[in-house]
Amino acid sequence: MTRYPSVLLLSVALLGACAARTAGDMMVSVPALDSEIVVRTCSRFAGAVCSIRYRDKEYIDTRDHGRLLQSASSFDGYGECYNPTEGGSERDRWASSSVLREARVEKNHLWTLTDMAFWLPPSRAYPKGCGQRRQQVEAVNTVPLSGHLLEKQVSVGIPGFPNVIEHRVTYHVPAPFSQGTFEASTGYLPKEFSLALYYDPVENTEREAGDRRGEQVLPVILATPDRLHAMGVYSPDLPRAGRGYGRFFYPDVVKWNCVFREKDVKAGPYTYRCLVVLGTVAEVQESLRRLVKPAAR
């Protein structure tokens, strides 16, 4: 596991009630290739990324608080029944049960500190069974707010890669667990991004995912069928144990994720880095090849 020193930066003053209500509404716009990438966060979703636009195309679906481009975690095999989620709870609509503690914009960086809500409200029934604990059929959490702090920095453009968004997160886990699943970055895209590819940047080969769901070892690219608009994901710290990059699809939305698993989780910080790549399929693949080359040496 890659762990980085983390200091909670507690320096933002939110002046007045109006400012507090809108602290999560931030934007960064950065030139990229022949256009610009515009990334927005929304107070409605406790500062989670609610929009990524590039070449006049919206990449992010926001129909509920579990979508967006965001982070989540789960512990001890309970899945959604013990599932701190940055954007908020399944029952949230126009506000979030997650609490945005601090937020700021610095040049091309968006920074937030959020106390994540549990995805399920206390006592919420879960008839299909919770994660790997199928005998558990309701939420494990007894309060709506988790106390799990998520410290996030989204950097739009990195040196040499104007079309790459760095999504770096630190989970501040308040208590020990036997096992933790950290969905460090997940992107929910409109269903028009229906072409799903697994891409091997070392061999420069791709294959269509077809109907396959779940995780595997290769970076995932989701694209429009004409291959003109695409989003890929890569982490220099994945794969692990034959998985890490996930692809999922539903009737009205598609999803990728960048996932890390830890055993014997101690209370404290856990930091992960995922890189989100935008462009045509060809541009995304070229960027992935260039990103992987230094890591492969």
From TrEMBL:
Leader sequence segment: 1-19
Classification via PROSITE patterns: PROKAR_LIPOPROTEIN
The entry's keywords: Signal
Record's protein name: Uncharacterized protein
UniProt source species: uncultured bacterium lac146
